[in-house]
């Protein structure tokens, strides 16, 4: 029977995800030569070539991809075993490391932690790590967090065997306009009414994509007058009359804009962004992770009802 070495299989999977031996070594705190030696040993154990030269780099062979397709099921089963063992040893307490993008921390994670603390039995210890939406899956795959909150726009394909995805909510997008803007009090405001306005959004990343997609769905390409990634900076520029911006309801609900900014609901267009929770495949069955997920779902459903 072929010998399957889980440690070496994890190295092979990391190489697939990271792309180079050097990046794999950095992620696993190994030397590049140790990574190469471990993969050479694995190829000898399995009896198939796993890597082939591609210029100065290496690429995975078809046999390596076949091996990893089967290995993913092994990894998922090991995650389930770890979760079940943790539940046996610690009950449903334990520690859950949560990676979340900035607006999800006050709107979802903090209320979920409070909900767990208010229960009649001890809840898991939640450790929070703020991370960009696109970075969350890298942290999850690397084992640096146990649960990630991100945006569906950055989620891997649903067929990705590494992760289990749970949709949490569709976060409405409202438009922020200066208080003295001629459309601040206009009835039934639509995105198309703002097609000639100066827009404020990030130069790249999820918010650039979300703003551009929402405006294009309304029939126009937004003119980007200013670029900013932080909501404090964006709202400050709106307040100063420098432009308009789409703002997630999660932002305005947790940090109400101050005087000088009017938030308008776009009832006709109903733009939104999808927030998802992700865990490594199999880990969702662990008692501690399951309780945190349940708390996040409850907070998300309350958020939807209130907004």
Automatic annotation (TrEMBL):
Family membership: Belongs to the LysR transcriptional regulatory family.
InterPro entries (UniProt xref): LysR_HTH_N, LysR_subst-bd, WH-like_DNA-bd_sf, WH_DNA-bd_sf
Q: Which UniProt keywords apply?
A: DNA-binding, Transcription, Transcription regulation
* Name by which UniProt lists this protein: LysR substrate-binding domain-containing protein
Residue ranges of every copy of the HTH lysR-type domain listed in the record: 4-61
Under SUPFAM superfamilies, the record lists:
Periplasmic binding protein-like II (SSF53850), Winged helix' DNA-binding domain (SSF46785)
For this protein, the record's PROSITE patterns field holds: HTH_LYSR
Instruction: Supply the source organism for this entry.
Output: Streptomyces mutomycini
Q: Does the keyword Secreted apply?
A: no
